[in-house]
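It is worth pausing here to work through a concrete case rather than discussing structure prediction in the abstract. The textbook approach is simple: state the sequence, then state the predicted structure, then interpret. We follow exactly that order.
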Amino acid sequence: MKALLVLLPICLLMACSEAPPSPEAPVHRASLERPSPAVSPDDSLFAAYWYRGEAELTSYTLEQARYGEIHPGKAVLIFVTEDFSRTKQVKLDRPEQAGDDRVKVLKLNLTKTFNTGIYPYSMMTSVFTPVYAREAPHTLKVTTTSQEWCGHTFTQFNLRDGAYRVELRSYFESEGDQDLTLERVWLEDEIWTRIRLNPDALPTGDVRIIPGTMYQRLAHRPLAVTTARATLTTLETGERAYTLTYPDDDRTLTIRFEPAFPYAITGWEETYRSGFGDRARRLTTRATRDRSMMLAYWQHNRRADEALRAELNLD
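Step two, the predicted structure:
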């Protein structure tokens, strides 16, 4: 069996010598400019971690707010770099033949599974953020799916002609099938990949942003641009934290991560009003890091490989 790499020792070995900024650093109004990563993609440190032909898999213990209650579950973050088509916005089958259409992205697959009473939820968001900001400064694509026993939904963002083209497919009559065009602003869903590339380039202050697609699905909010207050701080634990506060939705999202490269995400908290009618109440969804490994998981698809799930504490 392939040796499993635990992230903590890796992070300690790769720790940057620079101290993280003080939480009292001045706040600036967010810009759509995307600075290059703090650790350059051409740097041997970055390449040794992200270009080794493996994915970073991290499991989290999930406490998910839904229907005015907290439900136990599991979340998984899967980060991996891959060659992406700039025009088709899909993974390239033959990247060596793609020429200028080829763009290197850091892909995130974020999954959540939890039960609400008798029936299960399975949700997944995929984010495709270019690694080389000078070549492609904006996240190119986001997709989110949600499946439960009532039905399933699909949402997709594609960056085309300077705007986000959005498709929403839902089994709810009030949502139906929608095709929208939204302004090219920050996406909450891309914050996760931006943290891994360069947290110091995250926007702070008043940010024009499109809220996360999983939240929009669970809360049945319309897809729209809004304003959030963003802060980047250092916690007493030594972790850093990026917080988005949405005054219009009375909602706060905080993502915690390690202060040194590769900026592994240690957990997150999301507080908002959950439930409908007399079951509605303000609750907090929490995810706490459980276990991590580096693995070319696509090569481990035999029954014997199911033991790897136990090592991630997924069974």
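Step three, interpretation. The radius of gyration is 19 Å. The longest helix spans residues 7-13.
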